[in-house]
Amino acid sequence: MTALSPRERAERLTDGCDHVETLAELTERLAEGRPLRVYLGLDPTSPDLHIGHAVVLRLLQRFVDDNDDVTLLIGDFTARIGDPSGRNALRPPLNDEQIDANMRTYAEQAGKVLDMSRVRLRYNSEWLSKLTFPEIHKLLAQRTVAQMLERNDFRQRYESGVPIALHEFVYPVAVAYDSVAMNVDVEVGGSDQLFNLLISRPYQIHAGQKPEICLTVPLLEGIDGVQKMSKSLGNHIGLTDAPNDMFGKTMRIPDSLLPRYASLAACWPAAEVDRLAAELAAGLVAPMDEKKRIAEDIVALYHGRDAARAARDWFERTIQRGEIPPEMPELALNGRTRLVDLIVAAGFADSKRAAQRLIAEGGVRVNGTVVSDPSARWEGGAGVLQVGPRKFVRIVL
Questions:
Q1: For the structural domain made of 6-217, what CATH number should be given?
Q2: Where are the domains of the chain?
Q3: What is the pTM of this model?
Q4: 3-state secondary structure of 367
Q5: Which of 10, 103, 234, 393 is most enclosed, with most CB atoms within 10 A?
Q6: Class of 330-396 in CATH
Q7: Mind giving me the DSSP string for 169-238?
C-alpha cells in the first residue's frame, strides 16, 4: 500500500470537519514526521457522555490510529467557571462534589469510542489551580472586551441586555491556557467550541509556540430534533444506555434528522447517507424502516451486533405490536400494595406525586389493562406492571 503524502493525511484526518484552521498548517506539521500533540477537552458538567460527544471522540481516535500523542483533558478546573458556549443565561456553578462525581466515569465512557490505552488522561487543575493573580492579570491583558464580544453568544446577550458576568470572559482564556500549558499542535472540539479553540492561537504565539490547528465537527441534534444533544435537556442518548433504551430513543428522532443520524451517529459512509437523503426525498423508502436500520447500527457500535438485533426485536414486539416482553426485572411486593408505591420502588417515578401523575395521564398498565385511579392498589398475586411503552417489571409475591 502506497504511503499517503502529508497533504493526503491531512485531508483524511479532517474529513467531515466543519471547520479546519488550517489545512496548510496541519500539512506542514505532518511533514515534520513527528507525532503531533493533539487534545480534546471535556468539562464534567454532567455525569454522562452521549453519542453527540462520540462524534468528536471519533475524530480524536483518528489521531490515535496515526500514533500521535493524544490527550483527553478533563476540565475539572474550568468546570468550576462554567462554559458560556451557546448559553443565553449565566450557567449555574458546580461545586467540587458535583464535579468529582461527574468526572468519575468519563474515562470509562470515552473508552466506548477511544482506545484509552493509547490516550493520556489529564486534568487542567494541574496548571490552572497554580496560576497566581499576577499571572492571570497578564493573561487577561492579552484580550479586549471588544474581542470577547465578537463571540456570538456574548454579543447577543450584550445587545439584548442579558447580564454577562466577568468570570464568563475568563473561561475562554483559561481554555486557551490549556493549549499553552500542553504546547499542543492540534485541538479538536464541537462547532460550538470554535471561539474557545481559536482564541488559543494568539496565546500560543505570545508564548513563543506555534499556533494550534483547530478542528471542529458538527453538533448532533438531540432526539427532539431542535436543540443540541444534552442530558440537561433530556434529549440525549447516553454512551452507556442499555441497548433497548438506546434503540428506543433513536426511534423518537424526527424523520428530517435521519441523514444526520446516519452520518454522525451511525457512521454510515457518505455515499450511503446521500442515497438515504435522496430516496427519502423521493418517497422511495419508508422512514420507519430506515430509522430502525440507523438505530440498530448505533446500538451495534456500543453493544455489538447481537445486542442490536435483540434491541430491534424487543422494540418491534413491545412497542410496535404491544406485546409484553418475556424477560423483565422482578420486584417483590414486600407488603407494598399501593400502586404508586410499587411504581416508585421500581424506579419508574421519583416520587409518589409523580407516580400519581403517570396514572392520571393513562401511562400505567397492570397486566395490559390501563389503570386510571391514582389511589389504586395492587390486587391479586404476581403480575406485570408497565409504565409508558418501555418500562416493565414483574411483581412477585
A1: 3.40.50.620
A2: 6-217, 243-320, 330-396
A3: 0.82
A4: coil
A5: 10
A6: alpha beta
A7: HHHHHHHHHHHHHHT-SEEEEEGGGHHHHHTHHHHHHHTTSPPPEEEEEPPPB-TTSSSBP-TTTT---B
